[in-house]
Amino acid sequence: MPVELQALITAGYNDGAEAGAHLVLARNNLYYAGDAIAAQNWADAKTKLYAAGDEFGYVYRYLLQGPSFYQGLREDWKDALEWINNNWPNGNGVTMDAILNAMLVADFDELQKFVGLVDAYRVAIWNAPFNANFYAALARGFQQWP
Q1: pLDDT tens figures, 41-74
Q2: N or C: more exposed end of the chain, with fewer CB within 10 A?
Q3: At 106, which helix (H) or strand (E)?
Q4: Helices 73-86 & 42-63, crossing angle to 10 degrees?
Q5: What does the angle CA 88 – CA 15 – CA 57 come to, to the nearest 5 degrees?
Q6: Residue 140 to residue 134: CA distance in whole angstroms
Q7: Counting beta carbons within 10 angstroms of the beta carbon of residue 15, is it exposed (0 to 12), middle (13 to 18) or buried (19 or more)?
Q8: DSSP class of residue 127?
């Protein structure tokens, strides 16, 4: 994976994990506030509710906030998708012309690797059963060249 894209995905992963940790803390503070309310400890309940609210603020920061103050998960994912969009192949894909042109300018090591790969394929099929009907049909497909 390209380094730039991996960095964006990692940042998003980390922001998501950070938001998750703050959600757990918010949950815990809400439970503590509930316990304080049950005990009629209003000052502690107020403190715990404020703490839960602060934790929800951090969740917002890490998940949804734009790049103004902190680049959160939403921005990380947006940037990752923009990177993919901007670096997407032009749509022509691999063509026979591109393959042949690449082979014409290949250096010796690349040619050696190619021939080695073709020879390895030959070895793999050398003792395999020969399907005469398949290869006859394949050859008939080339009787008329486009």
Answers
A1: 999 999 999 999 999 998 888 887 766 666 778 8
A2: C
A3: none
A4: 10
A5: 130
A6: 10
A7: buried
A8: T
Which parts of the chain sit beneath pLDDT 70?
66-70, 91-92, 145-146
Residue 129 is encoded by which pair of tokens?
Answer: 């059963």
Q: Is the pTM of this model over 0.90?
A: no
Phi, psi (5° rounding) for residue 104? -65, -30
Quote the CA–CA distance of 77 and 16 in Å, as a whole number: 11
**CA 82/CA 88 separation, integer angstroms:** 10
pLDDT at 2: 83
Task: Tell me 129's DSSP state.
Answer: P
A 10 A CB-CB count for 33 gives 20
Q: What is the pLDDT at residue 68? A: 60
How far from the centroid of its chain's Cα atoms is residue 57's Cα? 27
For residues 19 and 65, the answer to whether their CB atoms sit within 8 Å is no
